[in-house]
Amino acid sequence: MSRGKGRPVLAAALLSAVAFxxxxxxxxxxxDDRTVRLWDLxxxxxxxxxxxxxxxxxxxxxxxxxxxxxxxxxxxxxxAAALERLTEAQRRMEADVPRRDPRGRxxxxxxxxxxxxxA
Length: 119
Description:
By secondary structure, the protein is of the alpha+beta class. Helices cover 15% and strands 34% of the residues. The protein is built from one helix and nine strands. It has one domain. The longest helix has 18 residues, at 79-96.
């Protein structure tokens, strides 16, 4: 592998796990230096380095290749897609909020029991 302008990356840590994305364009590695490294296999360069608080012994890609699971922690690679999914989930959640309670009162007119209404 190389980093930057074709300079080779020296292996300073022993690898504990390696996984390849379903499309074969990316690889992820974990080392005993507590890093998770994402590799772009098309250009042979290190794309990202993530530091962990503990040793990483397992890594894998999700079936769609958009996420990496490292030691049980999910890392999202496609941030724009993740934001889009979160925005859509929030929109659906807001659409499902009832606009009126069982007595027919609008949600804007209801005061939580812990907060008295001021006259």
